[in-house]
Design brief:
about 475 residues; alpha/beta; 5-stranded mixed beta barrel; 5-stranded parallel beta sheet; 13 helices; elongated
Length: about 475
């Protein structure tokens, strides 16, 4: 800033350029980025490619400049009288002191409502953390199966398939055709995302070519954003041109600036991999060749040190023959020694043989047996004689023999002999046992025993009685 001090006053005076610089910095610092709606007039494009025009409404106007590094991405070509909505930074052109807007983005005024809805949804999803890097899933380094959600006839699909076929032709691709704009696009996109898990792809790509904000409306819907966030498969979104930003791209795990760039990001470079594998194969071949050469040299060294094995075999054969002879001699000597030992033991055993003692014991046993038999037979004969004498004696005193001589034995009902008449009363029954049977009798009368049947009294007793 250049100032001059007046000799008669203690004040600072700004130059025009300093004033304009302060004004520019003030405008840029206080207002920053703004959205403005108005009508284009006085549009011009010099050889530099920059766009210059005036934006006006019914009561005011402001100069605008859109430089070539921004306007080359614009889908809208400025035309005098067109109503537009633009986004830019408020600034000041210091050379003329003109207040102006440096335009970053421009779209037809009809897209303003869509843009407002887009910004509102974006702010809400940012607040929920749906765009956070911590929830992004990593893409597989070498995918095997790619599912593409796109229009079957779109140029974006052709670009993606071309790049996939060139970079990584072994990648299996499944197309789920969907409408990418129009009233039915959102529903088809949601249905396709629900079908994705059943296909078991490694990665999903949502893509379409560029278009206006209205054309891309389906990719800015909240249901689609939440469906992408809930998808279990890593998802890449590449919608439109590099300057087109959609909600779907923000919530996806990776954004591709363009469909072609997304295909590049998804697929490894097959040619680079082939070159890498070729280099590794060459290194492997060299390593194996070196190892083989080293092993061959070591083998030659060992072969030179190795003697003819036939000499060793012949020596071992002779050694085996010597050992066989020594073993035969040793076994023969051992057997002769054992045979002599057995003969000596046999002679010793014969001297101590128990056969003679057994024969003597047998003779003694025979004599004792004969003596025992004679003694037993004599004892049996004696016993038989005694038994016969006892039998005769028993027979002589047996009541049964008495019965055969005409006597009777009276017994009561229990088989006890009745020896006295006093034991019977009138009406008692008893058995009269004869030698050839028994008769049941009843006592009707009792009489004294006749004298002729009474036993004789001893003489001494008679004298005593007298």
């Amino acid at each position: 800033m250049k100032t001059e001090s007046l000799p008669f006053q203690d004040i600072s005076v700004l130059s025009v350029s300093a004033l304009n610089r302060q004004a520019r910095l003030l405008l840029e610092g206080r207002l920053g980025e703004v959205w403005v709606r108005g009508e284009i007039s006085n549009y011009r494009r010099p050889g530099s490619g920059h766009w210059y025009f005036t934006l006006k409404d019914d009561s005011a106007q402001v100069r605008c400049a859109m430089f070539v590094n921004r306007n080359r991405f614009s889908k809208l070509q400025p035309v005098d009288g067109a109503e537009v909505v633009l986004r830019g930074k408020v600034s000041l052109y210091e050379g003329r002191g003109d207040y102006q807007i440096i335009v970053e983005h421009m779209e037809p005024a009809g897209e303003g409502a869509l843009r407002a809805a887009f910004e509102a949804l974006k702010e809400r999803l940012v607040a929920e953390g749906l765009f956070g890097a911590e929830r992004k899933k990593a893409l597989p380094e070498f995918p095997d199966h790619l599912a593409i959600l796109s229009s079957r006839s779109g140029a974006a699909l052709r670009d993606v398939l071309s790049i996939v076929g060139r970079r990584f032709p072994c990648l299996r691709v499944t197309l789920i055709p969907v409408a990418v704009q129009g009233p039915d696009a959102e529903r088809q996109l949601l249905d396709a995302l629900r079908r994705v898990p059943a296909l078991e792809p490694d990665v999903v790509l949502l893509t379409r070519g560029g278009g206006s904000l209205e054309d891309l409306y389906a990719f800015n819907s909240e249901p689609l954003a939440r469906a992408i966030a809930a998808c279990p498969v890593p998802t890449v979104a590449a919608i439109g041109h590099e300057t087109d930003f959609t909600i779907a791209e923000m919530v996806a795990d990776l954004r591709g600036p363009t469909p072609s760039a997304a295909a590049e990001l998804l697929t490894p470079d097959g040619q680079a991999l082939a070159e890498l594998f070729a280099g590794l194969q060459a290194r492997l071949d060299r390593g194996l060749t070196t190892r083989i050469d080293l092993a061959g040299g070591r083998l030659d060294t060992l072969r030179a040190r190795l003697t003819d094995p036939r000499h060793k075999v012949r020596q071992l054969m002779q050694r085996a023959d010597d050992l066989d002879e020594r073993l035969h001699r040793a076994l023969t000597g051992r057997m002769e020694h054992c045979r002599a030992r057995v003969d000596a033991l046999r002679r010793s055993v014969s001297l101590l043989s128990p056969a003679a003692r057994i024969a003597n014991h047998r003779q003694t046993l025979g004599r004792l047996g004969a003596t025992a038999r004679n003694a037993v037979q004599s004892r049996v004969r004696s016993g038989k004689r005694g038994l016969a004498a006892l039998a005769r004696t028993l027979q002589a005193v047996s009541p049964l023999d008495t019965l055969s001589r005409g006597f009777v034995i009276a017994t009561d009902a229990h088989g006890r002999a009745i020896t006295r008449s006093a034991g019977l009363a009138g009406g008692d029954e008893f058995l009269a046992n004869f030698h050839d049977g028994a008769v049941r009798a009843e006592v009707r009368d009792k009489k004294p025993l006749p004298a002729r049947l009474r036993p004789l009294e001893p003489a001494g007793e008679t004298e005593s009685a007298i």
